[in-house]
Design goal:
alpha+beta, Arc Repressor Mutant, subunit A, Alpha-Beta Plaits, 4-stranded antiparallel sheet, 9 helices, globular
Length: about 250
């Protein structure tokens, strides 16, 4: 099937940023607590919590930290509010920012300042979301797939929309509504994803030269580093030139 090579490059770039262990753990704990608050503390009956726990375990989060986060959410002790903000970066790059915060006014103020200083602008609701689709994305190390042909056939039966196979990684994309079915198919095949998430996937991309791309990527990294930010998505096309310069 046709591959989202640009998406895979974005994911690899983001994975390097998320290697900041303490910041990653904070985001995972927030996701677990909010998931437990909204759907209860039993992952067997709460798909969002089940996914959050799986991602926490993949990041080697200690069991007691996970359990405390579940208890905090189930008891209603946490007060985080979820919100997604939209904006533009240098060169017209569209940016989606998912946040969890205990102070919405602070979050909006910090986001606006960060966008402005980075040469972009915080937009209104709907200003760039039409350029993205909500998708399920699974990143799977190729070495974990023993029979690729049989595995892909099983994924197609589960309703996947796109599979990109590379030397080291397989990226599987599905409709938001098919996430659970595809997740079950992967588990039944005995394959453990490196990452599984519900993501904003671009429907079109903006191509910039290296100088402009650097400015956009700098803003994206600054947004990712903000305390209230969970995830950042963008539609900058990661050309071969940009990928090579980033890895240099």
């Amino acid at each position: 099937m046709a591959g989202h090579s640009k998406w895979a490059q974005i994911k690899r770039k983001k994975a390097a940023n998320d290697a900041k262990r303490g910041q990653l753990f904070t985001r995972l704990v927030r996701e677990i607590t909010v998931a437990a608050r909204e759907g209860g503390g039993n992952p067997d009956f709460n798909p969002r919590l089940r996914l959050a726990i799986q991602n926490a375990r993949r990041s080697n989060m200690p069991k007691d930290v996970i359990e405390r986060a579940i208890h905090k959410g189930s008891s209603g002790a946490e007060t985080y509010t979820e919100a997604t903000y939209e904006g533009y970066g240098p060169g017209g790059v569209a940016i989606m920012v998912e946040t969890m915060t205990d102070n919405t006014n602070r979050t909006v103020s910090v986001l606006r300042t960060t966008f402005n200083r980075g040469g972009g602008s915080l937009g209104t609701s709907g200003s760039v979301s039409y350029l993205f689709e909500r998708k399920g994305v699974f990143v799977i190390p190729a070495e974990r797939v023993q029979n690729e042909e049989a595995f892909i056939e099983k994924l197609i039966e589960a309703g996947v929309e796109d599979i990109e196979t590379g030397e080291a990684t397989m990226v599987v994309t599905c409709a938001f509504s098919d996430f659970g079915a595809v997740q079950n198919a992967i588990q039944e095949a005995g394959v453990e994803p490196e990452e599984a998430s519900i993501a904003w996937v671009p429907v079109s991309y903006v191509q910039l030269d290296w100088d402009e791309a650097q400015k956009a990527l700098r803003l994206i990294e600054q947004l990712e580093d903000l305390d209230d930010v969970q995830k950042v998505y963008h539609n900058l096309e990661m050309t071969n030139e940009i990928a090579e310069k980033l890895s240099a």
